[in-house]
Structures are given as C-alpha cells and as structure tokens.
Amino acid sequence: MSLQDVTGIAQPLAGTVARWMSALPLLPLLGFVLNGALSIFSAYHAGPADPGAHPHDPQPSAEEAHEAHTGHDVTGGGGHGDDHHVIVRHRFATLTSIVGPGVMVLAFVLAVAIFMAMRGAGAELHAPFVQRYYEWMPVGDLRIDAAFQLDQLSMVMILVITGVGMLIHIFSVGYMQDDPGYPRYFAYLNLFVAFMLVLVMGASYPVMFVGWEGVGLCSYLLIGFWYLDEANANAGKKAFIMNRIGDFGFLVAMFMLWANVGTLEFEGVRGQAASLAPNVVTWICLFFFLGCTGKSAQIPLYTWLPDAMAGPTPVSALIHAATMVTAGVYLIARSNFLFALSPSASLTVVVIGALTAIFAASIGLKQWDIKKVLAYSTVSQLGYMFVGVGAGAYVSGVFHLVTHAFFKALLFLGSGSVIFAMHRAYHATHNEDDAQDMRNMGGLRRYMPWTFLLMLAATLAIAGIFPFAGFFSKDEILGTLFLRARGSTLADAHWLGIPGGIVLYACYALGLAAAFMTAVYMMRMLIYTFLGPNRSGEREREFLGEAPWVMTGPLVVLGALSVVGGWLNLPETIKLGRIGLLDRWLEPVVGESTLRITHGTVPEVNQTLEYALIGVALAIAIAGIIVAWTVLEPGRLLPKRDAKPEEGFERVLANKYYVDEIYDDAVVQPTVGVSRGLLWEGIDDGLIDGVMVRFVGGQVPRFVGWIGSRLQSGQVGTYAWVLIVGVLFVLGAFTIR
Q1: Of 49, 314, 416, 624, which is the most exposed, with the fewest CB atoms less than 10 Å away?
Q2: Contact 324, 211 (CB under 8 A)
Q3: What percentage of the chain carries pLDDT values higher than 70?
C-alpha cells in the first residue's frame, strides 16, 4: 500500500509498473538465495557409509579451493592468481552463470520500464512515490516504516546500479569461471546489489542505513573472498572497521534528527528542516559527512579503499568504483535540504573533497600496481564529487557520479582483462612474477587491441578531454565551484575564520591541480601497460591475448557510455544536443536547495567566462597528457625484479606518504598496547581471572574449606566442647550488658 493511497494524494506512478519497485531489490536477493544454496549444497558432504571409502564426487576442500582458484590452463581458463594448480571447475558453474547475471538482467529491464513510466508522468511527478509495506519500528512516538521511495534521484542511482551492475556480473562469468567458490562469489555479488538498491530506494534514513550497512558487509565479504590469504582477510577487516568509524557519525546524525525533528523520513525532515537551529543543522550535516568519509573513502578514512583491491577485480569495479563508494555522495545529495541550510558544513565538504582529490592524485603518480593506480584515482574522483555536492552543485556531483561509474568500471574491468592475460601467460610458463605490476607489462597494445582502445577512451574520459564523458562532468563541477565563490551563501560564510569566497577559489585551484595529475598518472598507466616494448618475457608473449568476449563485450558497452555519457547534461555553451537534461530531471529533488544557496536567483551565465573556464580545464588536461607523453620513457623501464627502489620524494609517494604507518603507530599499536596491557593482562587476566576467579573464587573458598576440614575432625568430644563454648557465648551475649 502506498502512502499516497493512505493520504488520498494523487500520484501519477500509482497505477504504473512503478508499483512493482519492490521487485528491484528482491530479484538480486533471489539470486543470492539460489546461488547461496548452490554453494552450501556443493560444500555439504554427508560422508560415506564406510568411513574408509572415498566419496563418489569429492569437492575440493577450502585449502584446495583456495589453491586452485587462480590456476589456469594454457587454453585460456581463468585469469587471475599466481599459482599453477589444476583447475577444478565448480559443478554448478553453468547454473550459477544463468542465475547470477540473469536476475540482474531482469532487474535492469524492470528499472528501464519504471524509468519510462516516470518519463511518461513528466511534470506531474512533483513528489516522490512512496510505498509503505509494514511498520518496522513502532516505539513510543517513533514510527519507522519499511518503505521505499521512488523519485528522480533514486531513479538515476537505480539505473546505474542495475545497468553497470549487470555488465559487471556478465564480465564475472568469464573472469571467475574457474574459481571453486563460483556460486559463493555470485551470491555475495547479488546480495550486494540487493542492499545497494535498498540504500537508494529507502524512504527514510533508517531504511537507508540498512542498505548502508548491508553493502558494507558485502564489501567485507568480497574483499576477503580469498580469505585463506592473510593479507586479503586483513584488508577485509580494515575496510569493515574503518567504515564502522564513519557509521558512528551516521547514527549520531539520525539521533539528532529524531531529537530535534521527530521524524526520520526524508519528506518529513525536508518539511521541517527550516525550523532547525543553525548550529543543530551544522552538527547534523557534519556527522552525516563523517559517515560519508568512511563509506566514500575521504580524508582521513580513505586508506581502506586501496587495500580493498585485494578482492576480485570485478568487485573493485562494482563496489569500489561505481556504486558503494558513491553512497556518501548520494547521502549528501539526498540530504540537500539540510546541507543547503548550513554553509559551514557545506564548505567543510568542499575542503575535504578538494584535499582528498589532490592528495590521492599525487599518490597515484607513483604506484606500480595497475589496480592501485585506479584505486587512488577513485579516491581522487570521489573528492571531485564531494566538491560538487558540497558547493551546492548537486546535479554536477551526481552527474560526475554517473559518468565516473561508466569510465571507472571500464578501467577496472579493462585492468581485469590485462591481469587475466598476464596470469594466463605466467601460468603457461610457470613464471612467478607479479602479474599486476606495470613494470612487467608494456606493449600489450599489439596483443590486446580492443582492450587498449577501450581503456584509451576511458583514460581520455577521466582526464577530462573533450568530448568524452568526464570532460563535461568534471568541468561542470570546477566551473560551478568557481562561480559559487561570488554571490552564494557559501561565499558569504566563513570556514575556520577564512572567508568562504577565498576557500572556494583555493579549492578550485586544488581541483585544477588534481586534474593535471589525473591526466599524468592515467597516461602513465596507459603508456607503461600498452605502449613501448613488452617486458612480460619472451616465452610469455605467445600466450598474451584478448580475454573471451563474455568479458570484452561489457567493456565495449561501457566504452560507448564513456564516450557519449557527457550528453546527459550538456552545458549552454556546447550546443551539441539537448541542453541540461540531468538538470531538468533532478530539478524537483534539488532545485529548491540549489536556489537557496544562490540567494533564490538563477545566476546569469557569462558565456565569455564560461568559455574561459572550459578552456582552462581542457588546457590543464591536455598539458598533463603532453607532460606524461614527453617525460615518460617506457623503453627504459625495467621489469620489477630488475628495478631499483625509489628514492627521495618518489619513495614517499610510492609509500603513500606513510599514512598507513602513521596510523599504525598512532592508533593501531597504542590500541593494541592498551588492549593487551590494560584490558587483557590487567583487567581480564589480572583482575577478573586473577583476583575474582582464581583468588576470590578459588583460593578463598579453598581456605574456608580447609578451616572447615580442621573443625570437622569426627571426634565427639571436640564437638561437645565447641557446643558448650557456643552456648556460653550466646548466653553471654544476651545477659552481659
């Protein structure tokens, strides 16, 4: 039953396919149940009637599965890992290959149908379509319903999640085909999509928080998918713990909202947000942003994301590039009615986003692991998105989220194809070199022309080269940031005593510098991987080649989206099609908040200034590419085993400014020391076990028992004397005054 049915308010989507929106998360949830059942069933062993007999169809043990999960044969099986064991394909691989991607195809088709229904509703769709299923937490005055909400913003996210998610599921069929944990992998991946859809469709903060925590759980499970490697398990734990730090902020923000507004539904909070005291709004927004820094890997909680590359590469593409890590950006865009009321909190978002963008970009300049380059690139691009939503350019932030999902998913999947080819070659020749280190690659353009062309398109898109998708979205963020420095509530405010206008200009400069570095490190990755001489090895070259089309096909689709994705929101100055499609689509959700930041007026665009801003951003990107092209010399690069260690500042960049080491010394080791010295040895072992258990519960009763045993001698005479003494003592107590 929808809330509109209850209130009697007409809703144009009530009689359309949108009423089946609950099926969107239920479909991948069904995939999780089926694939999970296949995984459990295949792992179950009843045991032979004769303990000495062998089972008829033995499945590999966990250790065998782990050893075999990355092995490949020379005919092309598998594509990742570093051992050379015989492949044992899962007996339910075919069924899993149908169920896992199949539910995603159905979900995407339903999403497109709902989108068409929303387009048909047009201007009549001025309020979200909310469906309430049951009362979830009726406690006192607190009423939280299990309800989903469909509006223009959630629709954009649904299309990205199901569309890009479907392509990555299809890619996984080829990439993970030889993994003994194949059904378990798809079960986790399906479950992740289900939770991600709950996150973006929830009609209240608590329902959104369910999805928020659910995707965090799936991220932990998938990062540590190959959990027998300690490094993988530790990476999963690191992501889980750092996300929990951010989630503390999310919870506090919800508590404050409930205490001050009395509701946690988005529409209820939107209606009463203006009544909140300014300092209360600021603290609520800052606590929400703390949650965003954890989930979306911003300073200071960003260090888990590069380590999350320990998981399978399609996971990196789906969770750690295209969907989950953008949840923080979505949260701020969803809470635009709160952030628009607090210029101080919005400026904080802008500053942290800009600092993260340039900090991560500088680290990306000196990484050699191809996935680590992309990981720091993701952290940097997320910083751009936060700059956009923090500056009140909510459409720009969401726009970059969408285009980034296209080209970053393409880059990760393309790197997956490269790693697939490298492992296949190394497996064939029993080479133990690192298949993810770019120093062991080079010249792959000749062996993988499709992958090269598609990754070239994605590289130009992320670098901001016209007319690729990233050019439009990144330029829109930087241009809006520059314009907000005058004539906005942010410019009128102060941040730590600094005028808001100066803060925004400084962040604009940081954004340009990060754009320059982005162009440099992305071209560096492309040059060292695909151009120059090949460094894989003479015997290995004959085994290099393109991945199967079940993997390359999704890359082609993402490549096309990376090229034309910018057409979603063309600016006024570039009249190549319909102008501002995304602006108009999201106007019912964020239009009022955007106007609040610009003092209620739509800023007039000075075309000369806009052309100048576009020209500067484009020139910066081209300059970065030229610098990389002229400075880097792939012909002089040595394979990893022959390379000298970095020195000076290059060593600092290669070691990521030693932030992990600083965190370890400043936080982890003191925490371990206090836990071990005070909590474990002092309180647990010393006070509880030593004093309370061993002394009070052990020595004292033993001593009392010993006294009792001395008294219980069994001699009647002694008992008689004791009885007499006791009687005399009692009589004395009552008679002596």
Answers
A1: 49
A2: no
A3: 93
CA neighbor of 180 nearest in space, from 314, 58, 87, 316: 87
The crossing angle, in degrees rounded to 10, of helices 93-121 and 152-175 is 160
Which contiguous run of DSSP H or E holds residue 373?
Answer: helix 370-390
Q: Which residue has the tokens 């080791």?
A: 669
CA distances from 455 to 417, 530, 547, 562, 666 (A): 11, 10, 14, 10, 40
What are residue 137's phi and psi, to 5 degrees? -130, 80
Residue 300, preceding peptide bond in cis (omega within 30° of 0): yes
- Could you tell me if 273 and 341 are in contact, meaning their C-beta atoms sit under 8 angstroms apart? yes
Residue type, 16: T
Cα–Cα distance for residue pair 695/698, rounded to 1 Å: 5
The helix or strand, by DSSP H or E, that contains position 145, with its residue range, turns out to be strand 142-150
- 124 pLDDT higher than 80: no
Residue 676 tokens read as 């071990």
Residue pLDDT, tens place only, 637-696: 999 988 888 889 999 999 999 999 999 999 889 999 999 988 998 899 889 988 889 888
- Name the nearest CA neighbour of 155 among 183, 184, 129, 124: 129
Residues of the chain by 3-state class (helix, strand, coil), percent to 5: 70, 5, 25
Specify which residues 12 forms β-bridges with. Answer: none
Q: Residue written as tokens 């194949």?
A: 182
**What amino acid is encoded at 602 in this protein?**
V
- By residue count, the chain amounts to 737
CA-based radius of gyration for the chain: 31
CA distance 296 to 302: 7
DSSP assignment of 279-317 equals HHHHHHHHHHHHHHHHHTT-TTS-THHHHGGGS-HHHHH
Residue 465 CA to residue 614 CA, distance in Å, equals 11
